[in-house]
Amino acid sequence: MTQLAPNVLRDAACIVGIGETAVCRKPGSGLSVMALQLKAVAAALEDAGLRARDIDGIMPFPNLGRAEAFAASLGCENLRFAATLNLGGASPVAALRMAAMAVATGVANHVLVPGGWNGYSGARTREIAANDVESIPGAAIARDWYLPYGLSAPPQWYALMAQRHMHEYGTRAEQLGAVALAMRRHAQLNPGALMCGKPMTMADYLASPMITAPYRMLDCCLETDGAAAYIVSSTARARDLRQRPVSIMGAASGQPYPADDIINRKDFHRTGLTTAAPEAFAMAGVTPADADFAQVYDCFTFEVIQQLEEAGFCRRGEGGAFVENGAIELGGRLPVNTHGGLLSQAHLLGIGHVVEAVRQLRGEAGARQVKDAEIGVVTGWGDFGDGSIAILRRVN
Amino acid sequence: MGSTEAKLVRPLPLMEGMTKEFHDWCARGELRFQRCRACGEFRHVPRELCAACGSFEWEWARSSGRGTVFTFTVVARALHPAFAQAVPYAAAVIELEEGVRFLGNVVDCPPDDLRIGMPVRVDFEKQTDSITLPVFRRA
After folding, report:
1. Which of B13, B91, B101 sits opposite A150 (nearest CB)?
2. What was the pLDDT predicted at B7?
3. Could you tell me if A211 lies within 8 Å of chain B, comparing CB atoms?
């Protein structure tokens, strides 16, 4: 594969601002999806010390609002760069690289990446095929070849991957449960997490009703209303802004093959991260062992195990053992999803994972702070296994 | 017809192009997949050309209909109204002897008895006058 010199973009751009709304289920946000996102954007602008008209690049999440609408609402009169990446939940982390490309080359000065939805009070992701069959990943393939046989939603598609992994490698329910428990324990330390104050035991996990085997209810992420946003600027500009910048050391995205059909992959366990992670670590000039924490897109528990494997934190097949005995909890070998993740904080489309990584690297994570965190990893997962990853570091 | 009524009907493939051709073979009791005329590679889902060799030349080649369960999920809670009465049901990926995999249902096996590696063979179930789907039975 031909690549740019791996370090062309290393440390060329920084995350300079983050924003997040409150999250909820009932009674719902009471806001439009655009209003909700604009609240997160306002928080990110305030955090960065930027004015809305400084933003000249916008990368909206797929199907949640056009760049033109964001620009018009905010008063960004000189929008020079707009793009949406179609990688589902992997899009916001994938946007880190494209935003870095834009600001490093001068195509834009400050790129805004917003995302948010009424995931609880609005249309439910679990019902996407029933609501709008054309919008599901794989589109006509899923409609013609999966849906007639009863698979209509993400947990069902991904359960096929989890079941095969359990068969080949002996991955056990208690190991999936260890992921759910770690996220829930972290949420107890995050007052902004939906599941703060609602601890969970392994017995609770194992007793939760089966949804689509091997996934129980407590293997599944939350459906919530909420929004988040981040802003990327060149490293040179970042020095003059309000916050301690967080540098993008390396970033990449990738897809499984074929990306539009889960069933007929010769390498059934290959995901986007399988190719993206080595690329991102090479760009960063570090290895997975250098990471002080990882924020891993946790739509379902097994996807955390699979991404830890494909990102190179352990070998394929060893992810189940990797997550046991508190190893991915604060104080363990690799704290994962210190905010509680999609499983126990809220489903903020993966942007929440970026926001938390930045908080950790600024040293602003309060009770859940990873001591002396210098380097952190954040991943995204979307559609039928698209992947994205960024390696971030504290700038001293 | 109200939209609620429509939603309760089992979703069926859109009968056009290669998808229609596949199902027309099913209606005749034959499971066929695309096979590249140049390199002989079988493929599924239908695609315009062979990703292995680039050839646009292909034929519908008959499958033995024999395979094994590669992976599966047992759906305990329906996430689509059309399947609300069907739970618990299993959807299984069948790896056929020709190497292609097909997602389907094993209709004569209780979901709890399904195992990876279990041998199965194809059968067919007529859904409408124009659409017949493949199903699988224990071999």
Report:
1. B91
2. 47
3. yes
